[in-house]
């Protein structure tokens, strides 16, 4: 980002695992800069899903840098994830044909259950498979694989945890960090919100806010994807030697495995 230093900007890391996001300041002006930003960002900005995109520039390294409005704010709390605003924004995303068509034009292929399950089976270590919950989870995933029929697939974020929601000081709510945007079953996003943040007895109310009446087939897919994402996070945390977080996700997977979906119908 030497180009921006030369132009007099002060850059500070804005966090994130990629290390490609910066807070830029010059003469009282503040921007959020992102290297290698997705071209999909402009469409998300136009829909008000992310902070406003101001410009994009190709710098001398060949990388494209995107500048967005800097928004002072904070992540949502776990309790706030139950709010109707989260459900409404997810509904907007999952039902946006415009955004879905744009993603397809970027040659993004649908993500099917078989593709995700194959990654799990190839990544699983013998050490992890010594854990009873993980054994049960892998058995469940292999036994109850949803259909690979992509009909009904939508734009999905893929990582809707509370840290990826930005509530600005002006009370604007954004869903950020779209690097993992995918075309997939929307139950991928819905399941992780519900199983992580919403008590079972409030699911019916949440689905009303999401403007959707779930059927058994949707709830079963939601459970399958939640287990799969939980196992994925177990594998990642084990690799990073983050054992406390790994154990938390093992407990999460155990809770999802034992959940009876008939309780929420």
TrEMBL record:
Start and end residues of each Aminoglycoside phosphotransferase domain: 14-210
Gene3D superfamilies (alphabetical): 3.90.1200.10
Coiled-coil residue windows: none
Molecular function terms from GO: kinase activity
Name of the featured protein: Thiamine kinase-like enzyme
InterPro entries according to UniProt: Aminoglycoside_PTrfase, CcrZ_PhaseVar_Mediator, Kinase-like_dom_sf
Keywords: Kinase, Transferase
Pfam family, one: APH
Top-level taxonomy: Bacteria, Bacillati, Bacillota, Bacilli, Bacillales
Record carries keyword Kinase: yes
The organism's place on the tree of life at top rank: Bacteria
The organism of origin for this protein: Abyssicoccus albus
Keyword Iron-sulfur part of the UniProt annotation: no
